[in-house]
Q: What sequence folds into this?
């Protein structure tokens, strides 16, 4: 005969831990938390160093680009055949 609708096979599992077992589990959880805390501190320090390195690399890249742009500008000035005073007056809007 089939089971009535909504009926399930229910197993009653009663686990009774002793105080010692619970204490061991608490100690294990606390040591895991301590280990994870130390790992978190190490990862935060690593992140801080990587952030500093990124900032420094961006600064160096910006300086390098500025030097390249300066070189291109100097080449363009030389190729134009105008003097520096003529270019400055042109940039200032004095024709």
A:
């Amino acid at each position: 005969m089939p089971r009535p609708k909504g009926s399930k096979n229910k197993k009653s599992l009663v686990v009774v831990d002793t105080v010692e077992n619970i204490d061991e589990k608490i100690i294990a959880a606390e040591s895991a938390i301590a280990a994870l805390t130390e790992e978190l501190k190490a990862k935060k320090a690593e992140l801080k160093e990587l952030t500093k390195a990124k900032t420094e690399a961006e600064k160096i890249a910006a300086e390098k680009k500025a030097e390249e742009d300066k070189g291109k500008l100097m080449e363009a000035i030389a190729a134009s055949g105008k003097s520096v005073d003529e270019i400055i007056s042109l940039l200032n809007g004095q024709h």
In short: The chain has a mean pLDDT of 86. Residues 8 and 53 are 60 Å apart (CA to CA).
